[in-house]
Amino acid sequence: MRNLKTSFFCINLIFILLFLALFSNAFFAIAAESTNSITPNDPYYNEQWYLDKIGAPQAWGIKNTSPNVIVAVLDTGVDINHPDLEANIWINNGEIADNGIDDDNNGYIDDINGWDFYDDIADPKPKFTQGFSEIGLNHGTIVAGIIAAEGNNNFGITGVTWSAKIMPLKVLSDSGEGDTGDVIQAIDYAIDNGADIINLSFVGGIFEKSLEEAIRRAYDAGVIVVAAAGNEDAGGVSHDLDIKPSYPVCHD
To answer: What is the largest CA-CA distance in the chain?
Structure first.
């Protein structure tokens, strides 16, 4: 059912969750007492107010990379050649590029950097297809950058972590809409291919048991699932999820 739409983060909650996922509790206990903060040289860092709110500079003074953490970004696709992201894109080492063979026998041919479940092809980047929108094209890349844009490289923005492995899984169209079935397939792909975190920055208004079951499979596999709570309405008022639930964030 086509009922999913892009959603930007509920900033405070989602970044705390990502921090908890990317770094250990012991790390946070130390970081809370740290006075050794780091200010990266990325030109747009000063506009990223949320990083200071969650104590990122103090945390970075102790640890600022998570190179072995794989974060699956289920979204509108990710520009894997973006200068602030290309060093932090997941590589499927079991696959040989462009040979037309499923080398690792995972059911996907030439999935070197992820998969486009919306179009069922190996290229997980956004495309300029008919009906595309600017937010649709850019949403997944923006989300990936917020999570793991390369830090202190004197370019662009600073990620929550300066180094992680972004697994791009395109599940939404270039206008920012998609089907639950594609999301379920992508969740299972992320589980099977070693993701530590799954990020879902989209919402839908319909409860679907099959999606809840897919999220449960991720939890049972030890994968942390982070979901957006939805955007405010045109008047700037946030939705009360107890009255009008959104999914997947409201799944148990």
So the answer is: 52
Mean per-residue pLDDT, 87-97? 98
Rounded Cα gap, residues 125 and 118, in angstroms: 11
pLDDT at 155: 97
**Could you give all domains of the chain from N- to C-terminal order, each with its CATH number?**
2-227 (3.40.50.200)
Amino acid sitting at position 183: V
In the chain, alpha helices (H): 11-22, 25-33, 49-53, 56-60, 134-148, 180-192, 209-220
Q: For 36-60, how does the pLDDT look when each residue is reduced to its tens digit (9 = 90+)?
A: 788 999 999 999 998 888 788 888 8
The strand pairing partners of 74, in sequence order, are: 169, 200
Give me the half-sphere count of Cα atoms (radius 13 Å) on the Cβ side of residue 14.
23
pLDDT digits (tens, 9 = 90+) for 98-123: 999 999 999 999 999 999 999 999 99
* CA atoms of 4 and 89, how far apart (whole Å): 25
- The full length of the chain comes to 252
Whole-angstrom Cα distance, residue 145 to residue 160?
9
